[in-house]
Amino acid sequence: MFDSLSDRLSGVFDKIRGRGALSEADVRDAMREVRVALLEADVALPVAREFVEQVTERAVGEEVVKSVTPGQMVVKIVNDALVELLGAENAELNLNVNPPAVIMVVGLQGSGKTTSTAKLAKRLKEKDRKKVLMASLDVARPAAQEQLAVLGRQAEVETLPIVAGQQPTDIAKRAVQSAKLQGYDVVILDTAGRLHVDDALMAEMKAVASAATPAETLLVVDSLTGQDAVNVAKGFSAEIDLTGVILTRMDGDARGGAALSMRKVTGKPIKFAGTGEALDALEPFHPDRVAGRILG
Ligand code: GDP
Q: Domain named SRP54-type proteins GTP-binding: which ranges (predicted)?
């Protein structure tokens, strides 16, 4: 479907094969192709521009070693810069607080928030042997709390009993209180989502954050919403202290450009990737794999 970046660049560099150092003009030609590759991978335009500027500075004047073509050289420089930006290592959760450690999961409706909450709970229970309690704070959408309870049963993770009419901050406090009394290690709060970032949603997120003092606040973003994802990330990170991102639907056609946009806009690590609907389909984020996928 897409030409790989190496293929694109071989055309650009055919005419300069054999020269010593990458000149500014050669690099600029190459970077036009890099920019197209990034945009095709759904990296947001301003993010792609800034990235290309930085890599241009880095590439100009680089000596082309004999064993590689200039095109391969540029691909390597771009790939290294991408991996560096996406985070060289996969980022762990930081749950080193007095238990229960609270993880607040935020994002727009439909991003995969509730599913990711259950996936994360299952993972913490099975891989990290944590005792996990989940609670849905979504009182706006009918059946949202029940949806989490259903997923909890599938994942064999406890959910906080539903009390009709209770408000999000009160549910959050009740979850933390129950977790303390019953010796849970981790509480995961699945917060309400809306179709767009709005003031009421942000006010609610802030209120929940101050009631529950989360150790981690993870923004869930659908990787298929490449360009829009930037606005979502801006909206949330302007109002609350995010600690990381979960990128969902990385099993789909997405080429992963949203990962780069998220990293740039939030400045926070991408901690997990959702790779399917099943509750086991959550993986630590691998920058090197995603860089390869973005470059095609
Ligand atoms: P929420 O409104 O943000 O809580 O979204 P949900 O968790 O209800 O997810 C919406 C839909 O996306 C559901 O059908 C999920 O099964 C699906 N979904 C969530 N994460 C992933 C993922 O990583 N890959 C795929 N293919 N589907 C996902």
A: 269-282
